Amino acid sequence: MNLTLYIWRQKGPDKKGGLQQFKAENISPEMSFLEMLDVVNEQLIKIGQEPIAFDHDCREGICGMCSQVINGVPHGPQERTTVCQLHMRHFKHGDSIYIEPWRARAFPVIKDLIVDRSALDRIIQAGGYISVHTGGVPDANAVLISKKSADTAMDASECIGCGACVAACPNGSAMLFTAAKITHLAMLPQGKIEAARRVCVMTEAMMREGFGNCTNHYECQAACPKDIRVSFIARLNREFIKAQLKDTG
Amino acid sequence: MLIKNTVGKKIIMAITGQMLVLFIVIHMIGNSAIYVGGLNAYADRVHALPLLVWIFRLVMLMIFSLHIMIGIELYLENRKAKPEGYAVKQDLRATFASKNMLWTGLLTGAFLVYHLLHFTFQVINPEIAALRIHDAAGRPDVSGMVLQSFQNPAVSSVYIFAVIMLSLHLSHGIQSSFQTLGISNERTLPGIIKTGSVAALVLFLGYVSIPLLIFIGVMKG
Amino acid sequence: MLLDGKCPSGPLSEKWDRHRRELKLVSPANKRKYTIIVVGTGLAGASAAATLGELGYNVEAFCYQDSPRRGHSIAAQGGINAAKNYPNDGDSIFRLFHDTIKGGDFRAREANVYRLAMLSNNIIDQCVAQGVPFARDYAGYLDNRSFGGAQVSRTFYARGQTGQQLLLGAYAALMRQVKTGTVRLHPRSEMLDVVVIDGEAKGITVRDMVNGHVGSYAGDAVCLCTGGYANVFYLSTNAMGSNVTAAYRAYKKGAFFANPCYTQIHPTCIPVSGGHQSKLTLMSESLRNDGRVWVPKRKGDKRASHEISNEERDYFLERKYPGFGNLAPRDIASRSAKEACDEGRGIGTSGFGVYLDFEDAIKRLGENVIRERYGNLFEMYERITGEDAYRQPMRIYPAPHYTMGGLWVDYNLESNVRGLFVLGEANFSDHGANRLGASALMQGLADGYFVIPYTIAGYLARTQPGSAAAVHPEFKKSKEDINSLTKKLLSINGKKTVSDFHRELGRIMWDNVGMARSEEGLKRALELIPELRAEFWQNVRVPGGGDDVNQELEKAGRVADFLEVGELMARDALHRRESCGGHFRVEHQMPDGEARRDDENFCYVAAWEFRGGNKEPEMHKEPLVFENVELAVRSYK
Predict the structure, then answer these.
(1) What is the CATH number of domain A3-100?
(2) Given C66, C130, C135, which is nearest A65 (Cβ)?
(3) Most exposed residue of A74, A144, A163, C363, measured as fewest CB within 10 angstroms of its CB?
(4) Are C173 and A59 a contacting pair at CB < 8 A?
(5) B108 lies in which domain range?
(6) Which residues of A are less than 8 Å from B9 in CB distance?
(7) How large is the ipTM?
(8) What is the per-residue pLDDT for B182?
(9) Residue of B27, B16, B50, B59 lying closest to B180 (CA atoms)
(10) For A172-193, how does the pLDDT look when each residue is reduced to its tens digit (9 = 90+)?
């Protein structure tokens, strides 16, 4: 199939960018979306142009590196699928495809489709962990955890940190990302000890990084490739209220 | 501090919002006295306790101010957090209502000022003010004031438009407040979303019926 | 030269404890005076950086990804082994040790492997304490499953994302240290050289992948946790960015490269669909617990799977290895699949594929149980192939997955270059000639959490902190070398893209240095690779400049190194005239096609020393001594 692509090109962080048109020809439906871009890039290189820069790594939907808004949807039209796992069989001959980088103040563009997501790391740095030292811990079965709690913790912990929630959110909020980590740790007895402090410092870090506020559009859940649920945001809110009631100091 | 935290601000929005919803519900029930011809009696009874009325008004003013100020602050922060939009953007879950909370809210707020000047302080159309005109029982003729006002197409249009704004605001706001207060979960959220919309619809019908029925002439004195 | 692994003496089970007692310590007050450079933030790197930071050392952590949470360990699906014996099915540290040694076809060091088995239990405890949500049963206890090559259930797992969850645990620990200021993070940074001063590693040269700046970082020790080199095959299950550059440049600076030919070809990957393919996707081997592998009995049978009756199917693993059946070790399962396809019984349009069938398991356990166990894997399969594996069997084919070879290290994980430590897949030490399933995660974390914190102190205690500053002439020279390499790559301006060369190299490697190797093929590879390399330096085109994001330049540097390590692999494979584990020489097989090891002549580690671009590398041997296990024919029948 042949496609017309409109791709965001931007030379550097402080440069002006714009959409540029490309032709993708003889694309097979078996290709992944990124393989389609590989084909375009190979052609660009051969005619002496700079290829389109985009983040990608594992290409199996788990590293969270890939980050493209395709026709207005982060990670493209297929639900619960990262760009790298999106295949061209979901497009048809003659389609026009718009490809843009994640947009948010906290995610400045580095080049073309590459953005800087280190703000997410800094939210985790604020408190997205259990403060345990290496060694000196009890036997793994010493603390029992109900299957249900472990399962919910796992549901939340499946977040790949790609930032699609932020990209989709009209407010550029990182609530879903933050809520996933809060929920993961709050579900486990080991994580409960620091839960009150954690929810406060992580939400504060979120604000500091320039993310917006959650106004419950639920766009984030719809865009999330790992099906992280907005019910985790409700849990974050609960944890926050609990923290306020518990700690007035 | 609650007011400095992103979640804290939202919680204040949710609590003040829910209080306002409660007021809106009571107000609607009060309004519906007009259908059974009891509006004047209802108004009279309420105004028999002037101290309580003023305390109530002050509290409402505080709630409103808080809701509006934080609402504006959230909006400005959110706009700053998303300085650049997309050339193409598809909304998967966001709605017109959810994206325009500030505007529907501000328009409702502006209407409220008009509404207070119109029906509470009665300075806009002094010729029909219930404070001066009394009914047969000697009570302020609120009912007459309302009926006369809504026969004017401009006035009833303003009210109908305002009710639409309010209902849009509530169609997102009600469910959103439950989510913000952490009351919803995976199982209950879809129900809460639906209930919020239905509640907004009920309030819409309850409020819009009065100016509409009066204007089209179904309801006459 | 004979290499000494510096394994402690004494009984196997006491070696590590004794060694820890004897290792020197660095006093708490002095730790912050030492700077340790950690390259890579996968399981080994993140756990090492976090733990070293926690101990009080000054840590500089580097990764090429935009966040340390994205190391390719994250893609490991199946699980992590530990000798907890929670299921009470006869497991023990010794059994895990023995299975690992045997799985590695008796080409690993006893002492290392025993230590790994011992530490496996600490890892599970540590991860649970960090909040890793391992699967649990209804009583709240940890759940286990069995995994390729094991007859006990000792694998802990977190759905099909065990690697992700373990890495996020290590990443969280790392982030905690970044917050406290003991670890400084350098994402989007690629290490391009090790700086060696007077025989000791004293720093690295790094390219900032955002602004192209080439900078020097000095340290008192360098830890390479940079993963494996399976991308030498172009198509592999590794991430697109996985590369050999860090390890290879260290090799060029004097570190020995051990057993480069030992590569693991994973049996359960999704088959190649066409020439555009950029990577291969692994389906967790845990699928073999319930799936049955088969091909049609008849050659060229192109009927749809459901039209082929049970009698017409050859469940070849169950037939050839009744003891282990579909759970036979990876190398055996892979080679059997290749043989079936070579006989013309392969399935799918390409003929390079075998079925992995869940029909019986669904009948036996119900679709819900299968969905619970493998739901996300089935989903992933459907996403890529568009096929529903609940209704029709999966198609699978082997793909390069893991490289057991790597930089040579002693018992302390220190290479022959002093102060240069190598952890995880980047070293060669624990898996011998073949790695068992669910062992890679175990090794990465054991090295990072529990080995390096002790052994690095033993080295540091003997050195003066801050003895090398980045102003030393060696740093400047290294930077100049890297800058001129960049300039050279950008100036060739030839006709072929970097990927063109990589694909060609991959084809040469897969055909000649792949699952079944022959003297003839290896000699051919040794001719073809240098030719291709020469062409690369004449005819590659790298667009753009060196002072901003240039992904082609990054790739070019990596492929340049693959073009050299490929030759080293072929050389090592040619010299090893035996079959063992992931290295199968067609000249050395049993009458029934099984691998024939030659313990008499090849029971050693082959460590290669770089001697300049024009000279052949020199091989050094580290003899392998087995005092606690009997060298047996590895039989899974």
Answers:
(1) 3.10.20.30
(2) C66
(3) C363
(4) no
(5) 2-23+34-76+96-215
(6) 213
(7) 0.98
(8) 96
(9) B16
(10) 999 999 999 999 999 999 999 9
